[in-house]
Amino acid sequence: MRLTVNGNAIDIDADPDMPLLWALRDLAGVLGPKFGCGIAACGACTVHIDGTPVRSCALPVGEVDGDILTIDGLATDGKLHPVQQAWLEEQVAQCGYCQAGQIMSAVALLDEIANPTDEDIDNAMGGNLCRCGTYPRIRSAIKRAAALKTAGI
Ligand code: FES
Q: Are 33 and 56 in contact (CB under 8 A)?
């Protein structure tokens, strides 16, 4: 089957029941999304399909219908996405394991709501767990990213 990942067409030989995460990591060599829980409960594997965040560990690759964006494809022309930039400026990551998923959920949130409230952030990010407890910095970084986006940075 053919997947479109970060703008590239990638042909893979996969059982349609294989989770998308496996197909991305093991067959397509796209290593940004992480395996956390395997039951769509932690968010580490979050990718976008046509702009919608999904848990790739629980989505059969045969059901994918749309363009896949992973954190690997977020920066364009060598320039970080504003959410990535804000993450760096706020020094969000601790161990880092959850952060690719956190960032992908934050990108989807800001695509939907330009200036999210704390409640908006909690609602959008509640499914992304962080064992290191970086939640306050995630919230700060989302607000910084919103400002960067508004400023066109
Ligand atoms: Fe360690 Fe979130 S930074 S799990």
A: yes
For 28-45, what is each residue's pLDDT tens digit?
999 999 999 999 999 999
Ligand 1 centre distance from Cα of residue 138 (Å): 11
d(CA 36, CA 7) in angstroms, rounded, equals 25
Please tell me the predicted confidence (pLDDT) of residue 75: 96
Measured in angstroms, how far is the CA atom of residue 94 from the centroid of ligand 1? 5
Spell out, as residue ranges, where the chain has pLDDT lower than 70: none
| C-alpha span between 87 and 65 (Å, rounded) | 30
Cα dihedral across residues 72, 77, 83, 89: positive or negative: positive
Q: Which of 134, 135, 137 to mutate to test the pocket of ligand 1 (most atoms within 8 A of CB)?
A: 134
> Does the pTM of the predicted model rise above 0.85?
yes
Distance 65 CA to ligand 1 centre (A): 30
Domains in the chain with CATH codes: 2-73 (3.10.20.30), 82-150 (1.10.150.120)
Token output for 59: 């989505």
